[in-house]
Design brief:
heterotrimer; A mainly alpha (327); B alpha/beta (348); C mainly alpha (283); A: two-stranded antiparallel sheet; 15 helices; disordered C terminus; C: 283 residues; mainly alpha; 78% helix; globular
């Protein structure tokens, strides 16, 4: 069938079986259908996951209700469970991780995409992508052997000397704590930010950069004011990936966060995160209430991710301007 | 595009076949191969892996795959039926046993102990810990190393005027269970306020993951105090202190002390072998000792698996025990082993 | 040269210098990790390591041959599940989906990404291991596959959208139907980015431990087929690293090195195929 009659066919649908089957045989309808099925399966899997979490956390939901979210106790022996210290720890460590990783990652991506010669850029990116392959257990061990002493003996004293008036950096420092966990998480998520941002920056059409340069901008100005904003959505997408990874990271965090379910204002204090407590206690938990409380924590994390993602998206929409790739 | 797809397909097929070929065992599995899967405690993992390997050398058709996912994991998988048998450092409670479809039998295998390990700059000798002192430290009531309780137990040692940094396990574990079981017996306050389980609501302290985590934190943190398994302390040359037993003597943990604790308990052991031997009577008994158990279903449908398990248990109670000391585990007292031999008949 | 221009040039140099610093930091992190693994694990890398089964503690000569094969099988199975669902789903969201439905799927993928790996393991345990009554490679591959979906969706969609409109318009102007445009024009143009996403995915999933603990379990012996528990490098690293034995610690570091090497090899292979295809296509 030639193109014109194809278009004509689509313009005037007729309700008959032959037309239906002919439309089905038309590549586009099949493609649409197939991709739809795959996309829908994502929804299906996630819904199934939430459903399983929901029905397997029945006991604590009935027993604690909403108090679960605001209680600070975690007592397996007497059956008293509350999620607040874990929520706090999860949010704080992820925030620290992003504060460190996003500027570093973006800076590195800019260098790799704009400044470095292609060959060097490819090799360096290869190496940085390897960081994503390091097992989280090894990140945890290296955190214990390298980052903990570093923080305890050098970083914490330095921070206290310079910024000690802030409640963020007060109190004793054992090496393990929110800050250390944040640093380890930052190293774990940085390859995602660098890799994806670099690809996005590379795909920005050359005319954007050239237009800025031709107007007299310096290299940096052209990059920062013309190229990066154009790639904003892709870069923000990589930040979303990083945030999600940080929120859910299990093994590495539990080895360096101190595993103390308390809320402290100081970043140097030990704490706990949702993923860490589930990893620590799930294999040993006996008793239905205990087990299901851990599963309810998983549900709480889901809710947390939902809210954080929502807030971030509202932020994006609120600051969106014309002249960049739309999402 | 076609080229890419075909290239990818060819590569995938090659990879799959290579992997498939490699995945086949080097020699064809004999027809009477029995594959057993087991899961549970991490504490006895070294000796179990040794036993299962030696048994496989003796009986090549029996492959026992044991994974140390934790005592609680072992209990849960046995209850769910996803493994053929389990292992646990803490015995199953009546409530857990009630959830089982078939009755679960407990078989003690080896003995182990927890030791207090510390890092005090300037103090190199072995410190004495009274039962009360340990409980109060972990309750947060005793906060300084030069507290009167510690000073009195250690005359002649210059205890520093520094805060004790308490380190405990963050992950649920049989090691914790043994420790808090002892603390519950040592202190009424601990028993009512905190209690005993594989995971508790610690009043004070930082959490380290695994024995590795605790010992790592203790070694890195000045003035820290934590608890680890005896084998771990021995293998890694970690200094540890003496604990006062029920007779008032300060005992440094070793295999003899642990076996003595078990022997004194052997006399009043219940039928199903579920007993706690912390704070056992006896002048030479080490107070923070414990059995560790295999959890075997009393009814096993597959006759090949049943015979393999029974054969292994018999071997474990006789020849197997000879390997214990080499890996720093204490032997079962003879009386206990003899009773277990009789109990094997209960597996049908 | 007026002062404003001098200032802008100064800022230019400083900022570009800072980006170089950022790269240095990132690469040094990797070099430190690699260095540590090599120093502590290299001596355990021997022919035995790659061909022998694990031996109990105290015996030398043990290796991780079954874990290497197991990891390869698990990642392969995971890729066969996660990449098609993720990438084709990403195609839908970028090309076909309505605004609302695309938003929902994108959001859902982000949510799935944030689920802790151990919770995904628990999920796979509940729906595969429990009904089957035993652990298996299939369950492990399924758990890892789910973890791959969100990244695949996100990166595929991102790079499909980044393809300039001019390409699409040119293709349609030449009479190609929508799906032909996607398959023959847009996807090849976005292939570099999509491949990056796939590689990051494989890298991350190859190193995950927690989802495998309750699904693939682990195995001291060979695991024939797909229905038995299987050993994998991350789980072996986890088991060995927290054990009391120095020999096992060294093996754990060596296993980490081997894992990195395997991922690097896969990455290089994939890029080679991609670049050679590009080179031949542009001839």
């Amino acid at each position: 069938m030639d193109a014109i009659s194809q278009v004509a066919q689509q313009r005037s649908p007729q309700r008959s079986p032959t037309v239906f089957f002919r439309r089905l045989a038309d590549g586009d309808a099949i493609a649409h259908f197939i991709t739809l099925v795959f996309a829908a399966s994502i929804l299906l899997i996630t819904s199934l996951l939430v459903y399983e979490l929901w029905i397997n956390s029945k006991l604590p939901r009935h027993q604690f209700g909403w108090h679960f979210l605001v209680t600070s106790v975690w007592d397996p022996v007497f059956g008293n469970f509350g999620a607040l210290p874990f929520i706090y720890g999860t949010v704080i460590t992820s925030a620290v991780a992003l504060i460190i990783a996003v500027p570093l990652g973006l800076g590195a991506a800019i260098f790799l995409a704009e400044l470095a010669p292609r060959g060097v850029s490819n090799i360096l990116t290869f190496l940085i992508e390897l960081l994503a392959a390091v097992p989280s257990v090894i990140y945890g061990l290296l955190g214990i052997f390298i980052v903990v002493p570093l923080v305890r003996d050098y970083v914490a004293p330095a921070l206290k000397a310079s910024l000690g008036f802030l409640p963020l950096f007060q109190g004793p420092c054992y090496g393990v704590g929110f800050l250390t966990a944040g640093i380890v998480l930052a190293v774990m998520v940085i390859p995602f930010i660098i890799s994806v941002s670099r690809e996005v920056l590379l795909s920005v059409p050359a005319d954007q950069r050239e237009a800025a340069l031709s107007l007299g901008a310096t290299r940096w100005e052209a990059t920062w004011k013309a190229v990066v904003p154009f790639a904003r959505t892709g870069i923000l997408g990589s930040v979303f990936l990083a945030m999600a990874r940080a929120l859910g990271e299990t093994m590495a965090v539990t080895m360096v966060i101190g595993n103390d379910p308390k809320i402290s204002a100081s970043l140097l204090a030990p704490g706990y995160s949702i993923a860490a407590v589930i990893a620590n206690e799930f294999t040993e938990a006996t008793g239905d209430l205990y087990l299901q409380s851990l599963i309810e924590l998983g549900l709480v994390l889901f809710l947390l991710t939902f809210i954080l993602n929502g807030m971030a998206r509202i932020l994006i929409v609120a600051t969106e301007t014309k002249g960049m790739a739309q999402e | 595009m076609i080229r890419a797809i075909s290239g990818f397909a060819v590569g995938a097929i090659l990879l799959l076949s290579a992997v498939g070929m490699m995945a086949a065992p080097r020699h064809a599995l004999p027809a009477d191969t029995v594959l057993l899967n087991a899961a549970g405690a991490t504490f006895p993992y070294p000796i179990y892996s040794k036993w299962f390997d030696v048994y496989h050398q003796k009986f090549p058709n029996v492959q026992i795959n044991y994974q140390s996912i934790g005592s609680g994991g072992g209990i849960r998988q046995v209850l769910a039926g996803t493994v053929d048998f389990g292992a646990s450092d803490g015995p199953m409670t009546d409530q857990m046993l009630g959830q089982a479809k078939v009755k679960i039998l407990h078989f003690p295998t080896v003995l182990g102990a927890d030791v207090p390990t510390y890092n005090i700059p300037g103090v190199t000798g072995e410190l004495n810990f009274t039962q009360n002192a340990l409980a109060d430290i972990f309750l947060g009531k005793v906060t300084k190393w030069n507290d009167p309780q510690m000073a009195k137990a250690n005359p002649g040692v210059n205890m520093p005027n520094k805060d004790i940094v308490v380190i405990h396990r963050s992950d649920g574990s049989g090691t914790t269970y043994i420790w808090v079981d002892f603390l519950s017996k040592a202190s009424q306050e601990w028993s009512t306020k905190v209690g005993k389980a594989t995971s508790v609501n610690w009043p004070v302290g930082l959490g380290g993951k695994g024995n590795e985590g605790v010992s790592g934190l203790v070694q890195q943190t000045p003035y820290a105090l934590g608890y680890v398994e005896l084998i771990y302390a021995i293998q890694n040359h970690i200094p540890y202190g003496k604990v006062q037993n029920s007779s008032g003597k300060y005992i440094k943990a070793d295999l003899a002390g642990v076996t003595a604790a078990a022997a004194s308990a052997a006399n009043n052991m219940p039928e199903d072998f579920r007993v706690s031997i912390t704070n056992a009577p006896g002048a030479t008994s080490y107070p923070i000792s414990s059995f560790t158990w295999l959890l075997i279903p009393s009814k096993i449908a597959d006759p090949a698996k049943r015979d393999a398990i029974k054969g292994f248990l018999k071997w474990m109670l006789t020849d197997g025990q000879n390997y214990n000391e080499g890996l720093a585990y204490a032997r079962l007292p003879k009386a206990v082993a003899a009773r277990e031999m009789k109990a094997i008949a209960l597996i049908q | 040269m007026n002062s404003s221009l001098r200032w802008r040039k100064f800022v230019n140099v400083v900022m570009l210098g800072l980006t170089a610093v950022c790269v240095t930091v990132a690469v040094s992190a990797l070099l430190i990790i690699l260095g540590y693994l090599v120093i502590h694990g290299a001596e355990s890398l021997s022919w035995n390591f790659f061909t022998q089964l694990p031996k109990p503690v105290g015996e030398t000569g043990g290796g991780m041959a079954n874990a290497i094969v197991g990891s390869a099988k698990l990642v392969l199975l995971a890729s066969m599940i996660g990449i098609p669902i993720g990438c084709i789903g990403g195609v839908y969201v970028a090309e076909y989906g309505g605004k609302m439905f695309s938003f929902v799927i994108r959001y859902t993928a982000d949510l799935l990404n944030g689920v802790p790996s151990i919770v995904i393991g628990i999920f796979a345990y509940t729906i595969i291991v429990l009904p089957m009554h035993h652990f298996s490679t299939i369950a492990g591959g399924f758990a890892l596959g789910i973890m791959m979906i969100p990244i695949a969706v996100r990166t595929t969609e991102s790079f499909l959208r980044a393809v300039p409109r001019s390409l699409r318009e040119a293709s349609v102007a030449l009479g190609a139907s929508k799906w032909k445009t996607i398959v023959k024009v847009i996807i090849p143009a976005a292939m570099g980015g999509i491949m990056t996403g796939i590689m990051l995915n494989i890298a991350r999933v190859a190193g995950e431990t927690a989802p495998l603990l309750f699904t693939a379990f682990s195995n001291r012996y060979w695991s024939p087929g797909w229905n038995q528990p299987a050993a994998s490098l991350p789980v072996m690293i986890y088991t060995y690293a927290i054990a009391p034995y120095e020999d096992w610690h060294r093996q754990a570091w060596a296993a980490g090195l081997v894992l990195l090497a395997m991922v690097l090899l896969t990455n290089i292979l994939a890029r080679l195929i991609l670049y050679s295809r590009r080179a031949s296509a542009s001839r």
